[in-house]
Amino acid sequence: MIQKLLYLLVLGAIGGLLAWAVMEPFTTDDLRRSVDWGHLTLFGLVSGGFIGAMIGFASGLSLGTSAHALRGLLLGALVGLPGGLCGVYLGQIVFSAFGFAVPIIGVIVGRILGWGLFGLFVGMAEGVVGRSAKRVRQGAIGGAIGGALGGALFDALAFTLGGAFSAALRAEGKEGAFSRAVALVLMGAGIGLFIGLLELVTRQAWVRVIYGRNEGKDYPIDRSGAIIGRDELADVPLRGDPQVAPRHAEILISGGQYLLIPHAPMLVNGTPVSGQVALEDGDRLQVGSFQLMFQLREGASVSQPRDHGRAPLPPPPPVPAGRCPYCGQPYDPLTGTCACSISTAPVPSGFSPTTYPSGATTVVATAATTLVGLDPQVASLRVAVPATGLRIGREAGNDLIIPDPTVSRRHARIVPEGGMLILYDEGSTNGTFVNEQRITRQPLQPGDIVRFGNVRFRVE
């Protein structure tokens, strides 16, 4: 989002500079003595067209595709042309009224109000590019603030910096050229800057790419029907993966809720979805090889808490009669138990007693030494815990490498201690869980479900 803010600021200023370069050959200082409505019409069209085009171009460019940038340029110009015309007419009327009423202060106040009106109309271009009524309003408000601020700064900059250039330009009858350049550059930059700031402050929902091309990039969801897909004009463009359909899914806004409508296979929080899903802050979307996170500003949506669905546990593998379903070992013919059972009998060698808060003493067997992958990215994976322990994380160098963005580079470790397996969290971002309880240190038992980020294993 900061990248878009910079685009709007810089390209808005460039739009103002281009407008000045086109208009200046047709402008003389004599025109300031009376209002030439023909010249004013040309000024409104040129300045509105260039600033609107550059702001639209910046908005499209921030989405990362050439199609968005070209559409933004054209739509921005189409909206900026009439917007600049309306703005400059109304601005001139206000400026003239205040200037005649109070000669000095009135000119400054009139310029602030006049430029604000000009910015209001031109700023709407950004919202039209985004096809969002909300962004049209934001563009109008941001443009008005930016234009007014440019008007407030104009006189100070024109009189201080302009004096250094006026002597050289006076001989050519262009004493006011520098002031006019300052005016248009300030106006374009101010309109772009405040449109971006207002959008940043007021955005309610967005989708962040957390794995895949453009990782870390945010795409605002500010209109109902926002498209996620491979199409260059999608609101969330996911380019470079043929598994992603052109219009893979869309997000509708209804009654304060954000509803995901899948049009092709995808996962939400690890669960395949085929119908409408109400999105909540932090929901993770898997679209082809891309992993996305849906995010809401705090307080943006009020709904009942719900359990974020995860993929159901796969059925246990078939076990022959007379064998333990956890470790596959045959039951003891005398006691009916197997090596991985919990027992209250005297502690044999290889077992370690553990005392719980209730005072009861149980024994955990060291037979629980294998992690079995449950989720698609680790399906069929069986990892034995060696006597030296097991380091778990996303980066190379770990004993168990899990290629999932929800897993930290150094996520957790499992250490044999006193005949038990102890799981330690290594300060991971998304947490380590045992039976869906977040832990920092936890003894493991056969049958426990361990989750690193969003990836689960069963202890056997």
Polypeptide structure, described:
This protein is of the alpha+beta class and 460 residues long. The chain is built from seven helices and 24 strands. It has a six-stranded antiparallel beta sheet, with no helix packed on it. It has a six-stranded antiparallel beta sheet with strand order 15-14-24-23-20-21, with no helix packed on it. A hairpin with a 2-residue loop joins strand 7 and strand 8 (271-273). The relative contact order is 0.07.
Q: Can you give keywords for this protein?
A:
six-stranded antiparallel sheet, 22% strand, 24 strands, alpha+beta, 460 residues
Contiguous uncertain segments of 5+ residues: 168-173, 301-313, 341-367
Compute the number of helices. 7
What helical percentage do the residues reach?
Answer: 25-40%
Q: How far is it from the N-terminal to the C-terminal residue, by CA? A: 46 Å
Major sheet, described briefly? 6 strands, antiparallel
Summarize model confidence as the mean pLDDT: 76
Total number of beta strands: 24
Please render the helix and strand layout as text.
Layout: H1 2-23, H2 37-61, H3 66-101, H4 105-129, H5 133-160, H6 162-170, H7 177-202, E1 205-211, E2 218-220, E3 226-229, E4 236-237, E5 249-254, E6 257-262, E7 266-268, E8 271-273, E9 277-279, E10 284-287, E11 290-296, E12 351-355, E13 361-365, E14 370-373, E15 382-384, E16 390-393, E17 400-401, E18 412-417, E19 420-425, E20 432-434, E21 437-439, E22 441-444, E23 449-452, E24 455-459
Parallel strand pairs: 3-4, 16-17
Antiparallel strand pairs: 1-2, 1-11, 3-5, 5-6, 6-9, 7-8, 7-10, 10-11, 12-13, 14-15, 14-24, 16-18, 18-19, 19-22, 20-21, 20-23, 23-24
